[in-house]
Write a structure and sequence with these properties.
Distance between the termini: 39 Å
Strand order of the largest sheet: 1-2
Pfam family, one: RNA_pol_L
Structural class: alpha+beta
Protein name: DNA-directed RNA polymerase RpoA/D/Rpb3-type domain-containing protein
Radius of gyration: 19 Å
GO cellular component, one term: RNA polymerase II, core complex
Strand content: 5-15%
Largest sheet: 2 strands, antiparallel
GO molecular function, one term: DNA-directed RNA polymerase activity
Number of strands: 2
Organism: Prasinoderma coloniale
Length: about 110
């Protein structure tokens, strides 16, 4: 019988330990949480200047993998729940990042 030990519970987060269960059940739970927790993802990236060794497309793809939490997510509709065409779709939520590395060392950018 699977066991769940809740370590901490808040309105916006839970920390728990899942024991005595098959890996497939744990993975199904993980996938459900990823798929059902509302987040915003970066879809369009515009680079002005990129002097890094990584190309623009690689950076844009990596940014798109980062789930962003925002109060605005509750005001948005899922694409699957609307009949709007792509050109009618809301513009989204603009995020801007202005960063410049002034040394030869890697610059760590966090939120």
């Amino acid at each position: 019988v699977p066991k769940v030990e809740i370590r901490s519970l808040r309105e916006d987060a839970i920390n728990f330990v899942l024991r005595d269960t098959d890996t497939s059940v744990a993975n199904a739970l993980r996938r459900t949480m990823i798929g059902e927790v509302p987040t915003i993802a970066i879809d369009l990236v515009m680079m002005e200047v990129n002097t890094s060794a990584l190309n623009d497309e690689f950076i844009a793809h990596r940014l798109g993998l980062v789930p962003l939490v925002s109060d605005a997510v509750d005001l948005m509709e899922y694409a699957r729940d609307t009949e709007a065409e792509d050109d009618e779709w809301p513009a989204g939520v603009p995020f801007e990042l202005h960063v410049k590395c002034n040394s030869d060392l890697p610059l760590e950018v966090t939120s």
